[in-house]
Design brief:
The complex is a heterodimer of chains A (112) and B (114). Chain A is an all-beta fold and 112 residues long. Chain A is 0% helix and 60% strand. The N and C termini of chain A lie far apart (41 Å).
Chain lengths: 112, 114
């Protein structure tokens, strides 16, 4: 059974700092990996989708990497802003599945 | 991009009553939709997979008679919480999309049973 772990559970940084969020998964047989953002009491917003054959994806100040063999992904946020404060969720889809398995998320606070 | 609309955003109901939550795909057809439940400070837990024109597939431990799912069209799935009790209070989220292009999530429904 796939298990997804996100470390740290919470992170507080000053505005302008670059930061990295970590995601690890136990079964490397994945179809893709998706990073989401969730604001309090809200649904999920998709940030980046990485296919199993890809190493990284970029969108604006966000860069996500994938090392399938080691079961790891990172989300890099450059020049953090207070508006980036949210919970970031990593989700993995198995190669033989249509379902996502989520980590518990990292709660990010960017201090002005 | 794909848009999923979920309604209502929040609902308060009395214990013993039923509540229906709607999930719509606005600009695409969804043969499959997913329903999740999220507890405070926890991740999303998949409850069931909704299949258009057929019965939903429930995850282990989810009572299918309590959480009724109907997926009668390619753009609408509904989750009905029957005979709701305070322990059913939670945040419910639906999703739909394409396996290769990624899934889109609704805005969620906060259910409070009093």
């Amino acid at each position: 059974k796939q298990e997804v772990t996100q470390i740290p559970a919470a992170l507080s940084v000053p505005e302008g700092e670059n930061l990295v969020l970590n995601c690890s998964f136990t079964d490397s047989a994945i179809y893709n990996l998706q990073w989401f953002r969730q604001d309090p009491g809200k649904g999920l917003t998709s940030l980046l989708l990485i296919q199993s054959s890809q190493r990284e994806q970029t969108s604006g100040r966000l860069n996500a990497s994938l090392d399938k063999s080691s079961g790891r992904s990172t989300l890099y946020i450059a020049a953090s802003q207070p508006g980036d404060s949210a919970t970031y969720l990593c989700a993995v889809m198995g190669s033989g599945s249509y379902q996502l398995t989520f980590g518990k998320g990292t709660k990010l606070s960017v201090i002005p | 991009g794909a848009v999923v609309s979920q309604h209502p955003s929040w609902v308060i109901c009395k214990s013993g009553t039923s509540v229906k939550i709607e999930c719509r795909s606005l600009d695409f057809q969804a043969t499959t939709m997913f329903w999740y439940r999220q507890f405070p400070k926890q991740s999303l837990m998949l409850m069931a997979t909704s299949n258009e024109g057929s019965k939903a597939t429930y995850e282990q431990g989810v009572e299918k008679d309590k959480f009724l799912i109907n997926h009668a069209s390619l753009t609408l799935s509904t989750l009905t919480v029957t005979s709701a009790h305070p322990e059913d209070s939670s945040f419910y989220i639906c999703s739909a999309g394409d396996r290769g292009a990624g899934y889109t999530f609704g805005s969620g429904t906060r259910l409070t049973v009093v």
